[in-house]
Each structure stands twice: as C-alpha cells, then as structure tokens.
Amino acid sequence: MDDPSPHFADALIERVRHLGHPLCVGLDPHLERIPEIFLPRPAEPGDPRCAAAVEDFLNAVVDRLQGRVALVKPQIALFEQLGWRGLKVLESVAARARGHGLIVLLDAKRGDIASSAEGYARAYLDPRSALAADALTVNPLLGLDTLDPYLRHVRESGRGIFVLVRTSNPGAEEFQDRPREAPLFERLAGALAEISAGCRGGRTGWSSLGVVVGANRPEQAQRVREILPHSLFLVPGFGAQGGGAGDALRGFVSGPRGREGGVVNSSRGVLFPAAGESGDAAAWEAAFDSALEAAVSQLGEAVSG
Amino acid sequence: MDDPSPHFADALIERVRHLGHPLCVGLDPHLERIPEIFLPRPAEPGDPRCAAAVEDFLNAVVDRLQGRVALVKPQIALFEQLGWRGLKVLESVAARARGHGLIVLLDAKRGDIASSAEGYARAYLDPRSALAADALTVNPLLGLDTLDPYLRHVRESGRGIFVLVRTSNPGAEEFQDRPREAPLFERLAGALAEISAGCRGGRTGWSSLGVVVGANRPEQAQRVREILPHSLFLVPGFGAQGGGAGDALRGFVSGPRGREGGVVNSSRGVLFPAAGESGDAAAWEAAFDSALEAAVSQLGEAVSG
Asked: Which of A91, A98, B39, B107 gives a 20 to 30 Å CA spacing to B79?
C-alpha cells in the first residue's frame, strides 16, 4: 500500500491476481485450540500468559503466510477476551503482518451511531492509529448514515470496508432473508418476546433481556412495549439528541414508585455541559452537578407525574 | 449485585425505584469535549497522555455520580480509539464505578457469529474478566442464535443485555422501520449500490466498499453480485463451515487471471489443522503448511477452472 494514491480494492485484487487465489486466512486465536507448544494447559483468558502465547502463535502463523496469501483477517473478539493485553497483541501482530506485505482486514463488525462510529473509524482505519488496518468489517443495521466515518477513510486514505449483508451462520436467515410484511423493528421485537419472558426477575418481573428503543419515535416505543411487556428499555436520545423526558418515558408503565420499565441515557448532556468548557475545577464541578441535577429532576418529575 | 442469586433487571429496577429516576449517564469520552483542566490542548488520540486524561476525567465524573444515578454506560468506541491503553482505562473506570455501587452497562453493540460472540461474552459479561460489566448492548442482525453466549451469562451470572431494535439515529428508519417486500439482504445490497460504484479503483474497477456474503447460499451470492457488480465479497464459511471452493466463488466473475471479485476466508481450517494438535514445533509447522497448501490449491483450482 505504498502507492502514492492507494486504493484498497486495487491493491488487494492485484495481489490476489499475482498469487492466483483469493484465500484470506482468519486469525482467530481460540485459546482452547492453540497448540500446546505455544500455550501449555490449563489456560484461562484472564491469565496474562495467554496474551504472550497468542502473540507467539500468531507471529509464527504470520511468518508462514508471508508471500503465500494476500491478506489475513484477525477476529477482534478473540483478542478482546484477553482484555487490554489482547489489543496490544493485535497491534503487534497486525504490524508484523503488514511488514510482511500482508493486507490486514480487521473483523470487528462494528456498527454504531455517528459519533461512536467516528471513534471506531479512528481506532481501526485512521492511518495515525497504531491499530489501523487496511480494511474493516462493519454492521449496517443502524443505517447507511452510520457508515460515513468509515467511508471517509475509504475515500481519503485508501482503506476498505466490508458491510454485513448476508452472513453465513445458521441463524442469519432469521432477519436477513425472508420477505417481511412488518417493519424489521417489530419483527426483531417479536422474535425476542419468548426469550425476554424467560429472563424475568423473581422480584420485579422485569426481564434482563432489554432492548434499545430510541426516544425520537414515541409511538414505536409503545408498539415495542406491547410486544415486549417485560423487557427493560435502554432509551438513548434524551437531552442532547432532542428528546424530552415525556417522550423518553413513553414505553414505561405504572410501577410501585411511579412509571418504570427501563433507563434513559444521556451522554453529552450530562458529561459535557456547555457551561463546563472553561474555568477551574470548581467551575467544572458546579457545571457538571447542575447539568446532572437538571436531567435527574426532569426525569424524576416525568416518572412521578 | 452481592445478592446470592443476582438478577440484573431486579437489581437495576430496585435501584431506580429507590433513586426515583431512571437516568443512565453515558460515559463517552470525546477528546475534543473533555474540559481543558483534565486534558490540555492540542490532543491527538494516539498521544498516551490522552488515556491518562480520560481516566482522570471519568474518575471525577464517577465520583460525582455515586449515590445519584443507578447506572453508567461507557461507550467503548471512544475507549478503543485510544488503543489498548483505552481498554485499560475502561477497566479501571468501570471498577471504580462498581466500587461506588453504580451499575455498569457497557455500550459495545457487539454482534457476531457464535464463536466470536463467545469471545465478546467472555470479555464483557464473564465475572472472571477484568472488563466484565453488569450488562452489554448487542446487535441482533446476525440472528437470534448469535445471542446465546450472552444469554448464558444472563441466566447463569445475573447479567443483562440490551438488543438493538430501533435505534435513535437519523438513518435508523432505513432498515429498521419500513415494511419490506424484498428480503433484507437484497435491500441492504441495493442500498449500497451507489456508494459501492463511487468507491471503484482506477486500475481494477473493483470497489473498496465490500460486502460479507456467506458461502452457504450460492444463489444469494449471485443475486448480490447482480445488485453490486463492483463490490468485493468477503466470503466466510469456506472449509470448516462446510462450504466448498466452487460455492465460495459463486459470486466471482471472469478477470484477467481467472475468476475474481473477492476473498474467501478460512479461519479454523488453516489456523487449527486437526493434525497440528500435538507434537513438536516441526510437526505443527508441517500440519499448518499442509492445511494452508490444501486451501490455497483448492481455491487456486476453482479460480482458474
């Protein structure tokens, strides 16, 4: 990728043509499958020796792949299970692979709203990041607009992305295949109903299988509540994203201490109050407390009102 | 959560009832928004000082939240943008929050097939993990079976999950709302067509916006190829998952050096050959090379055949 105007697909396909095959080798360090010459047993993910063994194993793998395949695909979940040490190993293995001329496609299946997607794009596609890969797998469920931060790096830094369209696992057909009469969110909710009911608590009756339901479409929140009477809602979009407390609580129901049935999230509105941008520590503390109290009292009133 | 039989929803809702409001505070450390008293400017995500500043800032935030909200929601993307140091900060901030009696809901929106989901579940819900949270957000697009590893911790360790059903971002309606006549995977592919065409390389004509298309449904691969003639395919499911080379290449087209149009991934089949499970380093190398060569030659033949 030292091309003056690099382009992921060009570089990859030229390499594939040169090698004569399109094999991509997945770097999935399942601990229970790593040869004992690299990782003596027993081995628990929390043991720091695991990270060192994964590094030794994958270094040996990558050395053997040099010049023989076009690309490798680390599965980040299996690095994350090792905690921060796992990400450090990923950084080092990816650098070694790229040093060998291998293209690195990071299989992370990230998908999130714009500002979080920006964080993922910075982490995994920005050339200045130590963890930057040549390409990244992304999940489109949240909408095409959420792909923009990745697409900027596709266009400006010659990176690539792979969007999930039809995955290969047994359950993929559940949502991805069949024609739908109902909107997908109702299908999703309906499909979760039985599992949700099976995860109810003995004391409150609420289920530990919750759902994310935005505050910006209160009528949809009510519909999801009808379908999933026991699931807690995690309601984003309160405060900074424009949703009011009343809308945020639309899927809530009467409980022993007012309306209940979920939690309402605020990130920017509390964490970064406008008044807290300058000044000393005391000013920040005051601004923070004030924003927090405002959010708490709005919701407290809406719950009891 | 010191209850002898802990249950996430019970513990959360009882705390919410006690406090009288359902506010969840998102811990989203956007670097450009962190007060200068914590992080002097300029600050780049790659600078190790950023991680220390995020830790100081969030420690101060968490200290102020004690006893005032039921839970906090760290957005992991903004930790990941700091690399492995970011995960280390997340570990420490989450521990401090839990020490204060705050429930920690990790917003990671993870979604992947079973073995990778197992890694995420180990990382973020297993009580033995240093990064374990009380609950996790998950993406259901890959199917309900992919939720099983998380659900095991819901049932056995008293953890919770929140499944994305209708998110709050502007683009969410694209896939989540409207009734569909065509299968979702065709809709997804169709919606990507124009962007894909805009990301084509000048030398090969292939696009850097690729798609994940499983090898187990060749007729669907052909349909996606019709809709997205320029997108590279990342084809999982070759080898260990039972797909043959012919099926894996079903969405490929004629190129100057045989059939082309994507890459075919093998993880277990190459990384963990059955013959490499015991023996010395030389035996492992031989088994590895043999599995690799088998995969390479199968695909090489399919490409040129």
From this structure: A98
